[in-house]
Amino acid sequence: MASVVIYTREFCGYCARAKSLLESKGVDFVEHNATYSPDLRQEMISKSNGRSTFPQVFINGEHVGGCDDLHSLDRAGKLDPLLAA
Question: What HEC string does 8-69 produce?
């Protein structure tokens, strides 16, 4: 099973949708809540090539994007192979 990391913030509907999709697939993930942590937010921005919106998702260390990107990968049938790697 893939290693999944997601950077989130509280009261974020997109974060909830992304986590819900991952949970529906039975994926264990590490969540970094950056709501009150400027350091975590900066870490996320650095790792995601400047993207500052929440959430940002990484699978096996590779940045796959935010909530819409994650759902697009799923609709295209590309998410499951990434998660199985």
Answer: ECCCCHHHHHHHHHHHHCCCCEEEEECCCCHHHHHHHHHHCCCCCCCCEEEECCEEEECHHH
Q: What per-residue confidence (pLDDT) applies to 77?
A: 97
User: Is the pTM here over 0.90, yes or no?
Assistant: yes
Backbone φ/ψ region at 79: left (φ over 0), alpha (ψ -120 to 50), beta: alpha
Structure tokens belonging to residue 16: 């909830």
Domain that holds residue 32: 4-84
What is the mean predicted confidence (pLDDT) over 27-47? 97
CATH classification at residue 50: 3.40.30.10
* CA–CA distance, 53 with 16 (Å, rounded to integer): 14
